[in-house]
Amino acid sequence: MKEKVVVGMSGGVDSSVAAYLLKEQGYEVIGVTMQIWQDEEQAAQEENGGCCGLSAVEDARRVAQILGIPHYVMNFKREFREKVMDYFTEAYLQGCTPNPCIACNRYVKWESLLKRSMEIGADYIATGHYARIRKLSNGRYAVGNAASAVKDQTYALYGLTQYQLAHTLMPVGDYTKEEIRGIAGREGLPVADKPDSQEICFIPDNDYAAFIDRAAPDRVPGKGKYVTKEGAVLGEHLGITHYTIGQRKGLNLAMGHPVFVTEIRPESNEVVIGEAEDVFGETLVCGNLNFMGMEDLTGSKEALAKIRYAHPGERCLMERTGTDTITCRFHHPVRAITPGQAVVFYEDGYVLGGGTILKSKNLDE
């Protein structure tokens, strides 16, 4: 009897080829597109489809028809709003810069989809992520780096649990993007040349501040003061939801040289401005921990740490400093340690674990 796998089909080339590869490997494949858009008007207005738009359903349905697999649409609107959109808004209001894709992966694409898939008798779920699931010598599951370093998506998957990893397949991780597009073209899949979605799917115009204004109009703090770390007032900003750590453009400050956002203070509605060197830090504290390749951290351990998706990583010493906190000390200063983003720890090409960055501090503080 064939093992059954539910493939999350976003209408893109990666998940489409994932479905094809798994069928070729002998699985009974069911395609599912997750309905997460909040209303028909929003979805219809979205130009590029992405993983939220109505076009995603049509593209996925066409691919499923060509592959000869069943295709369904599952409604995850409530889960997506609560776990992703509301979280995104709340984080910005608190002066943080969230990563909604990590939240979506953990709570929607895996927690909710896996639960429903198991209810219909599936053995696994699968996605088109560029990563590989490894079972380590210690018996634990971890996501390992993809064959293509350029497309590697392990950073956004650090939040997955052992149960989720044990019931997940990621066939795309063994290929480069060019190879995936080549397979799609060879098999006549209509999404072979479909462009990758570059923006946050529920904010297609990329205007985060406007989205938050609409989502929480009575809570947006509005204009405030630009200040130096010593407290000198430099001017007026548009509101803390318009800024992130390390930002240089769009500040509208005539300082005569480039300056940067170094801190956001939601309690006083201030944005702290500093010099280029002020954006670098040696230490961070993270919480909301999830361990993957290792069961826990009781003392200290050397690792490679990434503090954003595109960060190449820096060696660090991570040390357990609280019930749910790790302090990470980098061997060399890193740029723009940003509260709300994730720090993900790696060893030998797989994820040890990670957490949400709570704060950055210099060693002399």
Explain what this protein looks like in three dimensions:
The chain has 365 residues and is α/β, with parallel strands linked by helices. Helix content is 25%, strand content 30%. The chain is built from eight helices and 17 strands. It has a six-stranded antiparallel barrel with strand order 12-15-14-13-16-17. Helix 1 runs parallel beside helix 3, helix 1 crosses helix 7 and helix 4 packs antiparallel against helix 5. The longest helix is centred in the N-terminal third of the chain and has 20 residues. About 2% of the residues have low confidence.
Per-chain topology:
Layout: E1 4-8, H1 13-24, E2 28-35, H2 40-45, H3 54-67, E3 71-75, H4 77-93, H5 100-119, E4 124-126, E5 132-135, E6 141-144, H6 162-166, E7 168-169, H7 177-186, H8 208-215, E8 224-227, E9 233-237, E10 260-265, E11 270-274, E12 280-291, E13 300-306, E14 314-322, E15 325-335, E16 342-347, E17 350-361
Parallel strand pairs: 1-2, 1-4, 2-3, 4-7, 8-11
Antiparallel strand pairs: 5-6, 8-9, 10-11, 12-15, 12-17, 13-14, 13-16, 14-15, 16-17
Summarize the entry for a quick read.
The protein has helices at residues 13-24, 40-45, 54-67, 77-93, 100-119, 162-166, 177-186, 208-215, and strands at 4-8, 28-35, 71-75, 124-126, 132-135, 141-144, 168-169, 224-227, 233-237, 260-265, 270-274, 280-291, 300-306, 314-322, 325-335, 342-347, 350-361.
Per DSSP, what share of the residues sits in E-state strands of 2 or more residues?
Answer: 25-35%
- Looking at how many chains there are and whether they match, the oligomeric state comes to single chain
Spell out the helices and strands N to C: EHEHHEHHEEEHEHHEEEEEEEEEE
Strand order of the largest sheet: 12-15-14-13-16-17
Largest sheet: 6 strands, antiparallel, barrel
The tally of strands reads 17
Helix content: 25-40%
Mean pLDDT across all amino acids: 91
What characteristic shape results from the CA principal axes?
globular
User: Poorly predicted ranges (pLDDT <50, ≥5 residues)?
Assistant: 42-49
Provide a count of the helices: 8
Radius of gyration: 21 Å
Secondary-structure class: alpha/beta
Ends distance: 62 Å
